[in-house]
From TrEMBL:
InterPro entries: Homeodomain-like_sf (IPR009057), Integrase_cat-core (IPR001584), RNaseH-like_sf (IPR012337), RNaseH_sf (IPR036397), Transpos_IS3 (IPR048020), Transposase_IS3/IS150/IS904 (IPR050900). It comes from the Bacteria. Residues 134-300 form the Integrase catalytic domain. Gene3D superfamilies: Ribonuclease H-like superfamily/Ribonuclease H. This is Integrase core domain protein. GO terms for biological process: DNA integration.
Amino acid sequence: MISDSDRVTAIELINEARASGSRLKPACDELNISVRTYERWIKEGEVKRDQRPLVKRPTPKNKLTKEERDEIIKTVNSPEYADLAPSQIVPKLADEGRYIASESTIYKILKEEKMNAHRGRSSIPVKREPPTHIATSPNQVWTWDITWLNAVIKGQYYKLYLIIDMFSRLIVGHEVWEDEKAEHAEHLIRKATLAQGTAGRPLVLHSDNGSPMKAATFQATLEKLGVQSSFSRPRVSNDNPYSEALFKTMKYRPKYPFNGFKSLEDARKWVDKFVNWYNKTHLHSGIKFLTPFQRHYGLDQEIMKKRNETYAIARAKHPERWSKNTRNWSLPEYVSLNPISEEEANNILQETN
């Protein structure tokens, strides 16, 4: 059913079109109405618009009076209650035998008066943005974490310390121990930086908020090595995605000993084999199906060039089999810790250059 307001609008549009020289039928056809409908509307006379928004409505019986509203504002701003939230004010007033309004009403009034600012001496809650780091080449950003490996004995675990290069996904350092200690982490980071020759070059090491990661001795070691530490947001599980993804790949390997490792030596041998496979054999989907070793040590460009040439030859041989371009084998210019827009990435790159 067409509303009164739509009917009036249609009549006005048709009249305007006719005044500009249009014939009646084409004008009616444009609005999907018949000439007879238009004539009936005209015959019925001017249609009144919806008057409901203009009706003066009675004041609700439960509405606060101006005096009551002023009392609420005066109370919440008094020295006794100025630092308290309405959820604290209402019970205190009840203990004094007073009731001025419900919590929701007080919150509503504070919002209307633009007085709903943070109350009290505690810090204003701040939404923490996810940590963002960008790598444009190897050995700029590393991420590390510790995962537990099951032992044959129920309740016993071995701890795998593992560092991965964010740009190439290469595992640059790993060790397995029976416990979690900052000393093990210190030994591992020293060994990794020495093997990669990162001394004197900027390097970020990102991790979660575990005790070995934040230990004072470990942080002192990073400072001596010139490594900048970075941490995930508290209680956020996906701020260290590269390490977490690697652990998942490892524990979903067909030959992973789901029944547990027999000994620490057994765990170390298995992890050594996995790291060698992951670095030198595994074609990583995140780096266009290169091995981390190829990406890390600059073999990627030649490999991608050969892939593009192979596809170009195949397309030239059978062009009818290609409706669009060949597969895109180009490599990303940068890798970010958390997803960011291209504009944000460019801003960060300009700041670091």
